[in-house]
Fold:
Amino acid sequence: MARIIRRLIAAAMVCAAPAMAQQVAPPPTLPLATVKTSPLLVSADMRDGLDLSGPWHYSIDPFRAGLAGFHGEMPGDSQLRYLDLDVAKAMKDDNRAMYEFDMARSPVTTLPSSWLTEAPDLRYYQGLMWYQRTFAAPANHKGRYFLRFGAANYATFVYLNGKAIGRHEGGFTPFAFEVTNLLRDGDNQITVGVDSQATEATVPPPVTDWENYGGITRPVRLIATPDTYVDDAWVRLTRDGKIAVDAHLDGAQAANHAIRLKIAGLGLDLAGTTDAKGDWRATVAAPRALIRWSPEQPKLYDVSISSGDDQWRDRIGFRTIEVRGPDVLLNGKPLFLRGISLHEEELGTDPTRAMTPAAARALLSEIKDGLHGNYVRLAHYPHSEVMTRLADEMGIIVWSEVPVYWRVAWSNPDTLATARNMVAENIIRDRNRASIAIWSVANETPVTDARNTFLRTLVSDVRKLDDTRLVSAALLTERSQGPDGKPVIAMADPLADALDVVAINTYFGWYTPDRLDDLASFSFRVPANKPLIFSEFGADAKAGFHDPRALPEKFSEEYQAEFYRKTLGMVDRIPTLRGMSPWILKDFRSPRRQNPEFQQGWNRKGLISETGQRKQAFAVLAGYYEGKER
Ligand code: GCU
Structure:
């Protein structure tokens, strides 16, 4: 299993040339340090490490002068912000020296954050930003050291002490580079270039319906491990009642090495030996005392895998998720997914996509306690591990997805490689999260042969990486008229055959002139033998805007509330409906939404405003879910 992963990533990383390189001729060769394979460092957020959050210098580079010269060649020193020198001193000491940057004297921001909220003149900046700080390496450091990024949006170029150590494409998944041989005693200088510019070849493409928060939006940490460490581990309950473990050691002692899985709370202690490649796979009957994870009882166990000097740790819930005909079964019992969708954006008037545990809890509590929910669609990209770990702890089932959104370059091999890498990085990061039940590969993508081939590849990758969860995608439908003249909504997407759960987004009565009273006459033609989720439906409302008339104006709270009442009535009649994640919990920033009275750059389909003010529709959905809870 672990080898499949590395092959997938290696293939993707090799092909996933930073798509924005197509905009600027890529520099001939950034002397990337020899990165053997991208370290996975699964559950690295549970390892001790030096957190590099806090003040960093920043410097914009809108014409990417730090990556390519005026004819596309390797830039000269005068533009290389990562150089390991004191610019001011160098120019004072030698009047031939000239630099068009000085990171140590550039403005300071606080990471993790997006630069959009750093200064008014950066609010709409999309492009390359350079960040720099210094840090002291741990004294008499031994073992191995890795720089791990929780996420940086979108393409990232990392340098340490003046040397390029790696690059990454993708704005929402973790990546790490080994720096063992580059660390020095005393101060180390890290410089990071982050380019937020989307292109036709990136994932997502330029046109989306959410703010493109450029920046280092999740923590950067220096992680220390022993010379041989547990790089990947996946511990789960199989559908036939076993505890299964897949682990991979990286390092000189990886092969044929003693290794041990312990779950103290279950009295489980399983010893084994890795194979010649450092892999270990084992299964053992699940102890009878096992308490299975569920929204009602989100039991997590302390799990450790030890080998040599290393001890890998995680907190894992054990449960099974499967489909049987039109039912979704959690631990063998049918359940209804009482959910809502959510973007990664904290409450407040000026969010910067910095999802702290407190910010995540404020949002998930609205779902669990406010809405009586048990489910959340983390749209439209992998959210912070803070969010998925909290969902484990609070007992909220998760739909996790990659930003294969709308018009993707289906025939571009680089784009496919980038998407495959994102799927692999997302699943590898979160395969130990009990809360995650569904991996989604796409949202509202136009049906073509190239798109079907592209998405079927992603579905196949998901199944290779994780055979314990469900695969889905948010699909569109086709509308026609029945013999009685009433609307017939059909799920005719050929991708549905490849999915475990079919999901559809509908906005009848918001983006269409349908009267809300007419929704009751809609009928749906969907697969009879698969669970159906409404992955989206919603209407905008400006919190506090009221229209008491019998036919309230759109953007009023009354219209949104009536939209929910009538849409819930419509979907509730579909016999295979097994869940929903209406669009959306909280108003979120979207440059596409510019009605000056109601939107002002915000998508207002939230059931709560950006400051958390509940709208009338909140109570409509909460009441519906409370009824489902019984
Ligand atoms: C689409 C899309 C969302 C978007 C929503 C809307 O379904 O998936 O990303 O925000 O509709 O129009 O508000």
